[in-house]
Specification:
With 177 residues, the protein is an alpha/beta fold. It is 59% helix and 14% strand.
């Protein structure tokens, strides 16, 4: 019986999650209708059928147990609670758009950690080069190891190693120039 109770709790959580996701979508359509000033205008702007938009807003009103819009042939206006919910929905849509923009910027911007190794005699040049690169690509970070002896390259998981030694010939995993 405990297992059944746990399963019921899981099902309730899933139902709540599905309802929340559906409600977020309905809030989006509510904002579209309000900003267009009518269901017809929103249908024209979004390409979604007027009947579908009307059904989604009615569904949202039932889920929230409030009337969001006063609608009749001569009047289309938000109720007081509709205005409040509209402002909150607008904030959520703006936050969603900011999250999408952040993701797009990340996809188009160099970022991450580059692991480097170099002999100490090149340290000043390396630091200047890394600083210059980072000014152009602020989301890139560096981990620099200064090493004058031979390096165990595979063990250090380096992205780039500068060396004044001979090119190692015993590794098929290295690209040497």
């Amino acid at each position: 019986d405990r297992l059944h109770g746990s399963n019921t709790t899981y099902q309730k959580q899933q139902l709540q999650t599905n309802m929340a996701a559906r409600m977020l979508g309905d809030l989006y359509w509510f904002v579209q209708v309000v900003e267009a000033g009518s269901f017809s205008g929103a249908a024209d702007r979004t390409g979604v059928a007027k009947s579908s938009l009307s059904r989604r807003i009615a569904q949202l009103e039932r889920a929230l147990n409030v009337q969001l819009l006063n609608r009749n042939p001569r009047l289309f206006a938000m109720t007081t609670i509709g205005e409040q919910i509209y402002r909150h929905a607008l904030d959520m849509i703006n936050a969603m758009e900011a999250a999408l923009l952040c993701a797009l910027e990340t996809n188009n911007t160099a970022s991450g950690l580059i692991r480097l190794a170099a002999p100490s005699s090149l340290s000043e040049w390396m630091l200047n080069t890394m600083a210059s690169f980072q000014r152009s690509h602020p989301r890139v970070q560096f981990a620099l190891t200064l090493e004058d002896g031979s390096l165990d390259l595979p063990a250090q998981r380096l992205d780039l190693a500068l060396s004044l030694d001979e090119v190692p010939s015993d590794s098929s995993t290295l690209v040497a120039r």
